[in-house]
């Protein structure tokens, strides 16, 4: 039975987090206002009216195979150096598959709570599959309005065996068809750094892959909450499928007359497009030339929303640090070499707080 959401902090936390009902279970119980545990501090709330919509058109990746190859490559590099986010079309992932993914995500989250709760941390039949809510609920002062299922990839047969029945086939196909694009973009970005990197190193930077499905239930007071708080991704490159509702915001920083000015850019959904964003690993590797994008997600009162990211990250044993040729050329290393598993533990051990995760590798 649902707790009284206004009075009892512990019972709400147990209901949503420990018992696996999630935000969806809370909303389905007939919620009319956001519980206090989800009310964000003023500075963390997303004011839609104060954000600016991105007017950057998607990058057409099919042009990489023609006379515009160099121009498209420069465009990818420019956005990786400034915003850390760009949208792509003609990316090689069938549009029908993207539609099937959204349907599969709604199907998974539309199941009864007990069907999803079998994948809760500590009881999930496989360490490769985890269902949960928010980001690090035990560490957060305000919870995030999001439920998710996370599927770690080792190989096809294991994915087909342990990933949830409702979404495993489309999630695996999404991963499979996206990886060629990821490798192409990564090779362009590394090549434009003016360094030589072996194919084995490219493979190592995407040695682990994870497909997540995020579910943002309708929210009675979206102005008080966030779907995901300010953060950058820890990995190399992230591929993201948005649905038509949108709600993704990226931070833009510029210095004007010596003063730092911050704005939030809304990334509007483009039919058939995928969003690509730079992660911390690539910022470290490029010695700060490429910027991992600080981003966040707004909730909506209109209808439930899904998004489906693929995170490509190094294996935990991989050492990451600025490429030696860059350090030699720059004359200084901005980051120290770290074992990625240590970086990952730090990332998942703290609540979202902008790009603070990068401090773990920064040389002060």
From TrEMBL:
One of its GO terms (biological process) is coumarin biosynthetic process. The keyword Chaperone does not apply. Keywords: Dioxygenase, Iron, Metal-binding, Oxidoreductase. GO terms for molecular function: dioxygenase activity; metal ion binding. The keyword Metal-binding applies. Its cofactor is L-ascorbate. Pfam families: 2OG-FeII_Oxy (PF03171), DIOX_N (PF14226). Residues 206-314 form the Fe2OG dioxygenase domain. It comes from the Eukaryota. Belongs to the iron/ascorbate-dependent oxidoreductase family. This is Fe2OG dioxygenase domain-containing protein. It comes from Manihot esculenta.
């Amino acid at each position: 039975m649902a707790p009284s959401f206004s009075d009892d902090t512990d019972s709400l936390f147990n209901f949503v987090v420990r018992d696996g009902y999630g935000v969806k279970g809370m909303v389905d119980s007939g919620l009319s206002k956001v519980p206090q545990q989800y009310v964000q501090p003023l500075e963390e709330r997303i004011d839609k009216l104060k954000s600016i919509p991105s007017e950057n058109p998607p990058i057409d990746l099919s042009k990489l195979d023609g006379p515009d190859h160099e121009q498209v490559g420069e465009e990818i590099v420019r956005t990786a150096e400034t915003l850390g986010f760009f949208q792509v079309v003609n990316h090689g992932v069938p549009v029908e598959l993207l539609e099937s993914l959204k349907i599969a995500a709604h199907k998974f989250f539309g199941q009864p709570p007990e069907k999803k709760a079998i994948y809760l941390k500590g009881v999930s039949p496989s360490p490769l599959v985890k269902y949960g809510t928010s980001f690090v609920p035990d560490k957060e002062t305000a919870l995030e309005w999001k439920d998710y299922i996370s599927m770690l990839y080792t190989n096809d047969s294991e994915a087909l065996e342990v990933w949830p029945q409702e979404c495993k086939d489309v999630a695996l196909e999404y991963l499979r068809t996206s990886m060629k694009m990821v490798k192409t973009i990564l090779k362009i970005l590394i090549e434009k750094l003016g360094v030589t990197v072996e194919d084995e190193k490219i493979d190592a930077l995407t040695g682990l892959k994870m497909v997540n499905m995020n579910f943002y239930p309708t929210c009675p007071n979206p102005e008080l909450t966030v779907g995901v708080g300010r953060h950058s991704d820890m990995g190399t490159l992230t591929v993201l499928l948005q649905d038509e509702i949108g709600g993704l915001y990226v931070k833009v920083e510029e210095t004007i007359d010596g003063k730092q000015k911050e704005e939030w850019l809304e990334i509007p959904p483009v039919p058939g497009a995928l969003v690509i964003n730079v992660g911390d690993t690539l910022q470290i590797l490029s010695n700060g030339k490429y910027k991992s994008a600080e981003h966040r997600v707004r909730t909506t009162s209109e209808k439930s929303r899904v998004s489906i990211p693929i995170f490509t990250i190094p294996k935990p044993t991989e050492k990451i640090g600025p490429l030696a040729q860059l350090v030699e050329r720059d004359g200084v290393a901005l980051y120290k070499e770290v074992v990625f598993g240590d970086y990952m533990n730090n990332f998942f051990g703290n609540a979202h707080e902008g790009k603070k995760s990068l401090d773990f590798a920064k040389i002060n």
